[in-house]
Amino acid sequence: MGSGKAVQGKRMCTRVVIGLPELTVVEDFLPLELENLDMVLGMQWLQKQGSMTVDWRNLAMTFAVGDVKVVLKGDPSLTRMEISLKMLMKQWQPNDRGYLVDFRSMGISKADSKDVESHLEHLTIVFTLLREYSLFANWKKCHFGRERIEYLGHWVSSNRVEADREKIRAMLEWPIPRNIKELRGFLGLTGYYHRFVANYGTLAAPLTRLAKKNSFHWTEEATSAFEQLKSAMVTRVGFT
Fold first, then answer.
1. Is 148 part of a structural domain of the chain?
2. Mapping DSSP to helix (H, G, I), strand (E, B) and coil, where does residue 229 land?
3. Residue 93 — very low, low, confident or very high, per pLDDT cuts 50/70/90?
4. Which residues in the chain belong to E strands, given as ranges?
5. For residue 128, what are the contacts with CB-CB under 8 A and spacing of at least 6?
6. Residue-number span of the structural domain to which 218 is assigned
7. pTM value > 0.85
């Protein structure tokens, strides 16, 4: 459930008739304790209704049941709204632990450090907020005052993104695959950095076709593509 609590039902109740102001629902239901909800109709039920129009602004769904037009309206009080971190901490309840808050959609500006002094000012603001609300950062995952950092297999700086040279080295040292599993491993590694290589799909095509087959038969064409792909990775990524 949304609260993070696992609830297990005992048995299905078939062909339960639910009367709504807009229509009558006849479905199979699994009785559960839903806290503040009366009934949940999932995607399977929506799919049965066929084509429908959704008005997200007014929280309304319109579809037809036979010759009858049905309009289901949502509850505006349940929509998302902005909330300050301070107010969130005051109103936090045990059942809220299953929710995540995305602050990126709340207009919070990013700290753009132009120099060391402004960087230190931004760090002071962040640390003050963390301390004020008893929040903690993982020290092992924090980097301060760096010109470039490693992130998800890439090295990121203020003006460029580079592939991790250790990953490129692993590609260079990768032996000729002896089976489909090893070939797919190589393609997975090189494919992660495909954006650095122009025409990657064309270069890797012979290997990709080989990886899709049920039987593995390495050919001269595969060897050529294998070496060309390695060479392209080294040249385009700028590895030395």
1. no
2. helix
3. low
4. 13-19, 24-29, 53-55, 60-65, 68-73, 148-151, 154-157, 161-163
5. none
6. 166-237
7. no
CA distance 19 to 21: 7
HSE-up of residue 50 (Cα within 13 Å, Cβ side): 6
Cα-based distances in Å from 236 to 189, 195, 229: 16, 10, 10
Burial profile 124-135: b = 16 or more Cβ within 10 angstroms, e = fewer = eeeeeeeeeeee
The count of structural domains within the chain is 2
**Which of 128, 82, 129 is closest to 107 using CA atoms?**
82
**Residue whose structure tokens are 């059942």:** 95
User: Is 28 a domain residue?
Assistant: yes
pLDDT reported for residue 227:
92
